[in-house]
Amino acid sequence: MLQVVFVKWGEKYGPEVVDRSVRAILKHTTCKVQFTCITDDPASRFNPLVAVKPFPPFTASLDHLKNGCRLKMAIFSPGILDEGIPALYLDLDTLVRGDVARVRDHIRAHSGIHMLKSHYVPWWPIQHWAGPLIGNKYYHANSSAIGFYPENYYWLFDRFNTIVVGDSSETSKTLRCDDRFISCYCRDTLRVFPASLVTKFSAEYMSPSHVYEQVRSRLPWVQSRRQRQVAVTFAGAALKPEMLTKLKLGDEVRYKRLKTYWNHLDFQNYWTEPVA
Prior knowledge:
This protein is an alpha/beta fold. It has two domains: about 1-190, Spore Coat Polysaccharide Biosynthesis Protein SpsA, Chain A (Alpha-Beta Complex), CATH 3.90.550.10; about 200-270, no CATH class. The protein contains twelve helices and twelve strands. The chain has helices at about 15-30, 60-65, 100-110, 130-135, 155-165, 175, 180-185, 200-205, 210-215, 220-230, 240-245, 265-270; strands at about 1-10, 35-40, 50-55, 85-90, 95, 115, 140-150, 190, 200, 230-235, 250-255, 260. The chain has a seven-stranded mixed sheet with strand order 3-2-1-4-7-6-8, with helices on both faces. A three-stranded mixed sheet has the order 5-10-9. Strand 1, helix 1 and strand 2 (about 35-40) form a beta-alpha-beta unit.
């Protein structure tokens, strides 16, 4: 069993985007999956397989917490998810192309909280032991996908509500966005999903150099890894599905200092094909 949770607020994404993710997961999965969506619009017509839940009480207003995607902290609130069952949070701009049972097995096999690679230097495994040397620094992972056991992280929701100020006087980077907060306070139990399971498009399919990316994409072990990926998330304003669906083969795509030539019609089809 795996429980998959989504968080939707505002009007940028409709319930049909949640439905697309649900159907893609069910198409590939070999395990039983239950779905939950936390939303400010429970009256919308979600897939009947999705348990729709309102946001839990925060100490700051929902409008305030939309900044930095901090409303995603709701997934750690008691009463949202079932205890004892591995949970996988996915951003709504995540493409599912493989069996989420593999992600479930990974969460079961490795304790802690699982997020996505962010920095190119993967120093997250040593931060616990390097604490006396690095002080208050921490590996800043990406929260487009999060794997965890709900009962182990109720304290994180409580800690967030204790610390968050709820007004514009917040200056700490740790409080500015959900993934920084999780990365900071869970640094001792933080793990990063292997790229063969869940990855960011920018980290896996883009590089600082076009030549480097073209060479890398031809390497047999890279091709094998990409074939086995369960989900690819499109973090970053320049990489949102509505932007990618307009691309033509060979178009240059840029995100920060990374770039690639677009050659991913399978990804494009995922976002353009009607939800069956």
